């Protein structure tokens, strides 16, 4: 136990990781999304992509216990089930790419995915059509690949839901439920591959504490009447995280 504690305390940029996960928890609590978009670019400065993905998914599972009960009753579970089923199939492809691309390339992919998602949302892109089952399967499949490769489990589905016409409460519940399912799928794959080590688990557990607390704080702040405020607050935090995580600033890995 002392060795694990020492390994956590010796983590490069630990204070920045705690601050990033704390901000991410608040944003996810009141919007239902944003954890990976905020944490992954910052964590990529200090940790390898493999460690970032393991930590973000493990802490994601921890926060689910705070947010899932309310979201379960408000989400469109059949629709989220289709998305999750497709992601289940494609996550291994993303993890396969993770093993074959160098860390700097992955950091650029993270920045590109996050920036593209943010730009589309800020620009007010709207999906006004009806999404059929093949479309949902395609969205879930792409989300699985990107989640396995970068740890950004939500951007594809977030863009689909937030750019659409659904109410804030429905968007929040659906994204919470899908992200919980995808986190579980990725962690299961990592365990089967034997790539999750105890120091990584210890760091994830440590970060899960402020994440759990701030998720509850964010959830208590949620008010459907303030949907626009929540979205723009989330956009600002995500944009700051993307800029700070650009590979041009160097790396602590």
Describe the secondary-structure layout.
Elements: H1 2-9, H2 14-31, H3 35-46, H4 49-74, H5 77-98, H6 103-122, H7 133-150, H8 155-162, H9 168-193, H10 198-221, H11 227-244
Q: What would you say this structure looks like, in words?
A:
The chain is mainly alpha-helical and 253 residues long. The chain has one domain. It is built from 11 helices and no strands. Helix 3 packs parallel to helix 11, helix 4 packs across helix 9 and helix 8 packs antiparallel against helix 9. The longest helix is centred in the N-terminal third of the chain and has 26 residues. It is globular and about 50 Å long. The two termini are 25 Å apart. The model has no long low-confidence stretch (mean pLDDT 86).
Top keywords for this entry?
Probable membrane transporter protein, membrane, TSUP, 253 residues, cell membrane, mainly alpha, transport
How would you sum up this structure in a few lines?
This is Probable membrane transporter protein. The chain is an all-alpha fold and 253 residues long.
How many distinct helices?
11
Helicity level: over 70%
Q: SSE order in H/E notation?
A: HHHHHHHHHHH
- Please report which band the strand proportion falls in: under 5%, 5-15%, 15-25%, 25-35%, 35-45% or over 45%: under 5%
Mean pLDDT: 86
N→C terminal distance? 25 Å
Q: Which structural category do the helix and sheet elements fall into?
A: mainly alpha
Biggest beta sheet summary: none
Quick one: overall form?
globular
The gyration radius over C-alpha positions equals 17 Å
The tally of beta strands, per DSSP, is 0
Number of structural units classed as domains: 1
Pick out the low-confidence regions: none
């Amino acid at each position: 136990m002392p060795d694990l504690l020492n390994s956590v305390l010796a983590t490069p940029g630990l204070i920045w990781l705690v601050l990033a996960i704390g901000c991410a928890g608040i944003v996810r609590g009141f919007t239902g999304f944003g954890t990976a978009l905020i944490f992954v670019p910052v964590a990529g400065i200090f940790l390898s992509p493999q460690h970032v993905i393991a930590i973000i998914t493990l802490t994601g599972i921890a926060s689910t216990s705070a947010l899932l009960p309310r979201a379960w009753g408000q989400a469109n579970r059949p629709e989220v089930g289709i998305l999750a089923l497709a992601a289940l199939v494609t996550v291994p492809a993303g993890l396969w790419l993770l093993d074959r691309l160098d860390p700097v390339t992955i950091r650029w992919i993270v920045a590109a995915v996050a920036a593209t998602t943010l730009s589309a949302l800020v620009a007010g892109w709207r999906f006004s059509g009806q999404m059929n089952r093949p479309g949902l399967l395609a969205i879930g499949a792409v989300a699985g690949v990107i989640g396995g490769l970068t740890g950004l489990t939500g951007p594809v589905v977030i863009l689909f839901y937030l750019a659409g016409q659904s109410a804030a409460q429905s968007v929040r519940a659906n994204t919470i439920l899908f992200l919980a399912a995808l986190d579980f799928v990725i962690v299961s794959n990592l365990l089967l591959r034997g790539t999750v080590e105890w120091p990584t688990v210890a760091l994830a557990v440590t970060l899960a504490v402020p994440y759990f607390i701030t998720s509850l704080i964010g959830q208590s702040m949620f008010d459907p009447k303030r949907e626009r405020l929540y979205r723009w607050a989330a956009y600002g935090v995500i944009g700051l995280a993307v800029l700070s995580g650009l590979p041009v600033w160097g790396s602590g890995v």
